[in-house]
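Researcher: Before we compare anything, I want clean individual predictions. No alignment, no superposition, just each chain on its own. First chain goes here; please echo the sequence and then give the structure tokens.
Model: Echoing the first chain and its structure:
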Amino acid sequence: MNVWIMDAASGVTLLYKPYMDFSIDEDLVSGLLTALNQFTIVEFEQGIESIEMGGMRWCYISDEMSDLLFIAADTKDVNSELIRARLDIIKQAFIEEYVKNEAYWKNHWFGSTDAFHPFKDVITEYYSQWKQAEVVKGVAEFFDILGIFQHVFNLLQNVIEGHFSEEKKENVYSTIEEMFENYSKSEYYQSHPELSNINFQRRTGINIVSINPMNCDMFVVERQIINLMRKIVQLIREQVGIISSMSFFVQEKIYEYLLSNLSILKELNLDEFLLKLFIT
């Protein structure tokens, strides 16, 4: 997120704090931002609240008493309400620190921006807290994802142990062991050592609980788990056929588990994958 605090009338930038690189001149951007806002005020009798421009999402908050314009830009995948909420926190902190009241502001704002430089540290403190919270949230969600996948792996193990002949078990287990051996030799596996925390034993099946979300590329790990689950379901179907496999999935309550946890599956974006995997 990049943050501007600007004098709305003159277009002077009181403070600019970037956390993303822009390939265009900062002064040109500042002038454009105030010009766009002035244009919408003249033409539509209200300022900009949020726009998408240059592959970014831009949010505006104005303060009438001080005639200041607070602007934040972030990537389009960040919700505009979230950007505005964070920008409003920055605005309130700045008003409290420097503006105080209308009379005070008029007597202390003479066009020099040097006095506002320390406020960059305040923004950085907020920004660090927000990023840390995002990481914690991401880790918490990943723990939920791991828990769901581990439970489904356990149910698939129950299918194999409870419904397969010794010959079919041997076919499945030897194939999985060979698969893991090939994984360990691949260049992709070697470049992502966290994948070694995914393991298989015939007695217990697939184990992913030793994965540390704080010490791995969560996208890489999740993609590997998804591919592994897809292959195991395919192995089961190859051994007993589609109809029998679906019957075993019902008996081991896989469908019941997915449907009873559908809301959290949707929140974690797992619903489409898992439902398609076991239904089609």
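Researcher: Okay. Second chain, same rules.
Model: Second chain and its structure:
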Amino acid sequence: MSVGDLNVPAPAGKEYRKASISIQKEEWTQAREHLQKALAIYPAYSAAYNDLGAVYARLGDTTHAREALQQAVNADDHFVPAYINLAKLAVAEHNFLEAEKLLTSAVAADPQDAQSLMLLANVELLAGHFAAALTYCRRVHSLPHDSQALVHYIAARALQQENQPAEAVAEFQTFLHEEPAGPDAEKAKKEMDNLEVAIDQQTREKRNAALLP
């Protein structure tokens, strides 16, 4: 929770709770209206701006989504969820440089936030910064975290690009152990199988070369 949100007046908090119920029901227009009312009462409500940005995104209005999320950051420059949501908008537009800046700010605000670190690792992977991606993956590994199996998939992809196939296979195996039926499981299995075939071929080629006179 943002520090500023601790001072939310009761009427604004009531509208925010109504918005949360509407969001759960996927009633986006009603949620937007309740959030706008909450912000009219308390313009420094970071969480309300953040949720409003998410609602606008659901409504397909990325311009207003970005504006609302930026307002959340303006109200509290340590509000990590808003940085994350802004970064997701940037990734959707393939603006990896902007996403990297936003997630770096999120990590600076909370160095222990595993989600920010994992997303930053993925952005570095997408941007082709494989060593940086691995650095952030290792930072996630060093923290207590739940439901972040994807970090092993990211690490595996980065290790592939860094020409470390055996290490990549180990990361794929860990990913599949933690998320055997997830949406990326089949893709991970295929990539791991291809790597293992390539490793076996390289091993045979080295053995045959060693046997030649």
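Researcher: What stands out in the second chain?
Model: The chain has a mean pLDDT of 92. Additionally, Residues 197 and 203 are 10 Å apart (CA to CA).
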